[in-house]
From TrEMBL:
Name assigned to this protein: Kinesin light chain
Region forming the signal peptide: none
Matches recorded under Pfam families: TPR_10, TPR_12
Domain of life: Eukaryota
Organism: Xylaria bambusicola
Keyword match DNA damage: no
TPR repeats: 16-49
Keywords: TPR repeat
Keyword Signal found: no
InterPro entries noted in UniProt: NLR-like (IPR053137), TPR-like_helical_dom_sf (IPR011990), TPR_rpt (IPR019734)
Length: 195
């Protein structure tokens, strides 16, 4: 991989092919965190180079989905269905489904992860647990993409409050979410004027 990166650069399609194959190797070895890292890198590069509908991009999506499903089965067998490591993978599978445009499947994964986090760490602690906050964030933007603006804004406002309490008002993630909420409000106001 280093040779390809040096010769052609990190975003060249030949390099991305090697990155994807490295993800396959890590997945076969059970090194799922490293496999995920390689798949995400390959997927982002292939989407940029060829677009989201290219067969090479779709192959990487399929391989990533297989890896996540394998990880879920292994985590569930080893630790049970509500272990936080498993729930993190459920969230990531939701992200993958969201990227594929499978909105119902993505929503189901996010909801499963959130319910699991509530059971695992308690409903009172979920507001301070970053992985659960991240899942709520993902669900909020999924709802927005699905056109469920009121639900999305309500959830994202709560995410904002939780994130601000956890990280402080000047943290970049808090500021980014604040800007996104303002953009959503402005868009909704424009749409109401058109109607």
């Amino acid at each position: 991989m280093r040779g390809y990166e040096k010769a052609w650069g990190p975003e060249h399609t030949s390099t991305l092919h090697i990155v994807n194959n490295l993800g396959n190797l890590y997945s076969d070895q059970g090194k799922l965190a490293k496999a995920e890292e390689m798949y995400i890198r390959a997927l982002q590069g292939k989407e940029k180079a060829w677009g989201p509908e290219h067969t090479s991009t779709l192959d990487t999506l399929a391989e990533a989905e297989v890896m996540y499903m394998r990880a879920l089965r292994g985590y569930e067998k080893a630790w049970g269905p509500e272990h936080t490591s498993m729930l993190h993978t459920v969230n990531n599978l939701g992200n993958l489904y969201s990227d594929q445009g499978k909105l119902a499947e993505a929503e189901a994964m996010y909801m499963q992860a959130l319910q699991g986090y509530k059971k695992a760490i308690g409903p009172q602690n979920i507001v301070r647990y970053r992985p659960a906050i991240n899942t709520s964030y993902n669900l909020g933007f999924l709802l927005s993409a699905w056109g469920k603006q009121n639900e999305a804004k309500s959830l994202l406002k709560q995410v904002y409050v939780n994130l601000e309490a956890l990280l402080g008002p000047s943290h970049k993630d808090v500021q980014s979410l604040q800007n996104a909420l303002q953009d959503m409000n402005q868009l909704q106001q424009r749409l109401e004027k058109i109607r």
